[in-house]
Amino acid sequence: MDLMTAIPINVKKNVVKEKKKNLNCLKKGIQCVSPMDCLSGNCTDNICVGDYMNCSINETKANCGISEGFECKFNEECMSNTCKDGFCIVKDSYSKFTLYVAIFVVALGFGYSISTTNLQLNGTATAKADDSDFDVKFTASVNNTDPTDNLVVTNISYTDTVATFTAVLDSTNDTASATYTITNNSAELRADVRMGTPSITGDTSYFTVTPTFTNTILAAGASTTFTIQVDLTKTPIADKTITIQVPFTADALEAA
Known about the structure:
This protein has 256 residues and is α+β, with helices and mostly antiparallel strands. The chain is 16% helix and 34% strand.
């Protein structure tokens, strides 16, 4: 609606003059007795209706429009020439709103910085060694002595950690021999198996002792063999006995 066309200027002059006579005029929606009670100059069914118009008049020009806070559809309807969200507003309200938002955003950023919390986990993990995880032992033995030589008697046996070899020789060049199997019975660990220096006590002039073994690293479940051989180099006129000890070491290694 074009306010300048629908309402003549001289009418607005009278409205303004009449409003000055009554400083207690009522706003829209308030009970009234006469039109003079209402800012809009319209009292219908004892209720103020319509919008309050403001006019700025000088000798040559008049500017009229709906007051701040009343309903509107277009900017041109408002005295401030600003219609926002269906109501006339003062232009300065834009800058006030912008300033409020800016302050609010800054306050949010500052608050977030204060409320930041750092969390941290401290802990340890230990891989515990267990002797039961490593198992290397003798698992078999074979008597290599010629079974047709009835004068040579060889007894062999073994436990998990001790192999036993007993031979009786009576003639030059008699030979007694046995082979033992060493197995890495571990589920995962490897075994570094090495033979130490043999120890022989007694009269060694009648015997030749030959241990045969290659140091090796056994994977879990793998096996290797060790052979011991004793030869009689001359016939004695009395019994001669020697004691033989062959040490082995097996060191655990992590799986490859």
